[in-house]
């Protein structure tokens, strides 16, 4: 996930209520974890095929995580370790409930009318939605086949896991460009920048709609040369990128880091003011 304050988007400011729930009982009226019905080998196989996935939580949102009113699924698991992550509990494959594709799709269909009226749909976020690729692929295809607008919120680090056929089931990609300079990207995430650019180049070649998201963190990502580098990357994808969102850092996740026994490095960093977020000459 991008992990700034989504409601403080600078290019097209929009506010939306967020209704969040744990994943348990996402599509099952009994509220049970699908894993309870499966033996260990069956569960292993179901995860391999994508019949089930570990879903951390879900949310009904308006005008964030894509257009209209959306159901956002937060998947467990992420290969990045962003210093500003406000949901570090989604990084590992430890929290959440095992959900079946069919239950999620049934739930999505119940909201289909709201999605249609509002121009919304499904967003799969995380964690990293491509971490459990088999499950994400299945949900996206089923939702898309049912006429529901689909979106992923991804760092792009695992973009190579998506086939062109998978991309046919995705209407919009929210692509986090967490920094423009490779060294800053590594400092922010612990990973390398190149896969994100490669994925963005591929989306551009395919003409896929993209919203780029960048989190502005004072003292970490706000150096002018880093912002210039983000602008340069975005300009590579001219014509494909519909929107650029600059999300101001916040430290609301600090308590979760402590709760997990992890060191939170941005304790003393204050959120940037909105003038800084909206004032870059390259229009970021
Ligand atoms: S660590 Fe993963 S879930 Fe957290 S902000 Fe980074 S990409 Fe998103």
Overview of the structural elements:
It contains ten helices and nine strands. With 284 residues, the chain is an alpha/beta fold. It has one domain: Alpha-Beta Barrel (TIM Barrel). Helix 5 links the parallel strand 6 and strand 7. It is globular, with a radius of gyration of 18 Å. The structure holds iron/sulfur cluster (SF4). The site of iron/sulfur cluster has 14 residues, from loops. Iron/sulfur cluster binds next to loops.
Fraction of helical residues: 25-40%
Any low-confidence stretches, pLDDT <50, length ≥5? Answer: 6-17
Give the helix tally: 10
Order of helices and strands: EHEEEHHEHEHEHHEHEHH
Question: Which key phrases capture this entry?
Answer:
single chain; 284 residues; alpha/beta; TIM Barrel; 9-stranded mixed sheet; 10 helices; 9 strands; 32% helix; globular; binds iron/sulfur cluster; cytoplasm
Summarize the helices and strands and which ones pair or pack.
Blueprint: E1 18-22, H1 40-49, E2 52-62, E3 69-75, E4 97-100, H2 101-110, H3 112-118, E5 121-125, H4 133-145, E6 149-154, H5 164-168, E7 172-176, H6 182-189, H7 194-206, E8 209-216, H8 224-236, E9 241-248, H9 254-259, H10 274-278
Parallel strand pairs: 3-5, 5-6, 6-7, 7-8, 8-9
Antiparallel strand pairs: 1-2, 2-3, 2-4
Helix pairs in contact: 2-4
């Amino acid at each position: 996930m991008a992990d700034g304050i989504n409601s403080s988007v600078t290019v097209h400011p929009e506010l939306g209520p967020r209704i969040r729930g744990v994943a348990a009982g996402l599509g099952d009226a009994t509220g049970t974890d699908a894993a309870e019905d499966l033996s260990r080998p069956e569960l292993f196989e179901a995860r391999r095929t994508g019949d089930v996935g570990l879903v951390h939580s879900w949310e009904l949102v308006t005008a964030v995580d894509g257009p209209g009113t959306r159901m956002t699924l937060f998947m467990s698991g992420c290969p990045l370790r962003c210093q500003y992550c406000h949901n570090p509990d989604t990084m590992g494959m430890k929290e959440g409930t095992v959900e079946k594709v069919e239950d999620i799709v049934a739930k999505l269909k119940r909201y289909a009318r709201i999605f249609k009226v509002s121009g919304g749909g499904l967003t799969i976020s995380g964690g990293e939605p491509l971490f459990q690729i088999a499950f994400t692929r299945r949900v996206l295809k089923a939702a898309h086949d049912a006429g529901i607008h689909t979106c992923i919120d991804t760092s792009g680090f695992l973009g190579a896991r998506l086939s062109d056929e998978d991309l046919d089931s995705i209407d919009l990609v929210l692509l986090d460009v967490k920094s423009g300079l490779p060294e800053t990207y590594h400092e922010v995430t612990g990973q390398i920048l190149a896969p994100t650019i490669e994925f963005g180049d591929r989306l551009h070649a395919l003409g896929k709609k993209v919203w780029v998201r960048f989190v502005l963190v004072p003292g970490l990502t706000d150096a002018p040369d880093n912002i210039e580098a983000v602008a340069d990357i975005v300009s590579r994808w001219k014509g494909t990128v519909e929107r650029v969102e600059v999300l101001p850092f916040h430290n609301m996740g600090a308590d979760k880091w402590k709760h997990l026994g992890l060191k939170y490095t941005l304790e003393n960093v204050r959120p940037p003011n909105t003038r800084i977020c909206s004032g870059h000459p390259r229009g970021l």
